[in-house]
């Protein structure tokens, strides 16, 4: 089942049909004692809605914070070492890749998150910007992974590479994060073979594409969640982006008007147009 947040309310999709879920707020749904069972009741007791096609999708978030894990794929480790070598940062990234404790950082508040089809931003003081396609965990206030969505951790590589202490500025700004198109509600972990793909189009033509699978991720979702919730509480639940395994070549930087498509097969495709902030 997939849960959608739209401008006309919330919907659950089951076997290609959409059902309105109107009795509870988004926060209440994500923190429901038995979300899967509740959605099954909605599907079983109601007629499908006819108006889903007329809705505009919104980011699947209400009051949750968004956090992110870094350097969870070897490809990200190599890219970070390369971009920060002049600043002497390479060693930090190598060490964090192999350390027991993962890199976890604050990524966005809900107002900084773009939904499907709305713009993501590149900073106006950045010269090297990339999207980062990431499986994103949806976690309730009890630290249970209740589902998965697609995330884009927009990043300013020149700022991040200049000094690791600039990470919050490279990562956290208006529209620096996109989530959607839906939350795949699942009690089970996604298979290691789950593919993640990134396509970037410029002027309608392919400018970059890449792919990876969850098998390339060094850490497990449950270990990342366990670290995130250590002495840390999330009364409305939270989102946790799990890191990128796809990095465009160093010569590539995003431009205004680029179209970014991220697909994680069982969840869907998140598509956004890039705009320069300001
Ligand atoms: O340490 C920098 C962040 C890396 C990151 O966002 C990623 O690996 O996805
Ligand atoms: Mg990232």
**Element-level helix/strand string:** EEEHHEHHEEEEEEEHHEEEHEEE
Query: What fraction, in percent, of the residue positions are helical?
Result: 10-25%
Structural class: alpha+beta
Residue runs with pLDDT of under 50 for 5 or more positions:
none
> What are the bound molecules?
2,5-dioxopentanoic acid, magnesium ion
Number of helices: 7
pLDDT averaged residue by residue: 96
Major sheet? 10 strands, mixed
The 3D shape can be described as globular
Strand content bin: 25-35%
- Give the distance, in angstroms, between the N- and C-terminal Cα atoms: 38 Å
Rounded to the nearest angstrom, the radius of gyration is 18 Å
Write down how many β-strands occur, each being a DSSP E stretch of 2 or more residues.
Answer: 17
Model description:
By secondary structure, the chain is an alpha+beta fold. The protein is built from 7 helices and 17 strands. It has helices spanning 26-30, 35-45, 74-83, 90-98, 157-162, 167-171, 221-228; strands at 2-6, 9-14, 17-20, 65-70, 103-108, 113-114, 120-122, 129-130, 133-139, 145-153, 155-156, 177-185, 195-202, 205-213, 238-241, 259-264, 268-276. Strand 2 and strand 3 (17-20) form a beta hairpin. The protein is globular and about 60 Å long. Residues 68, 70, 132, 134, 153, 243-244 line the site of magnesium ion.
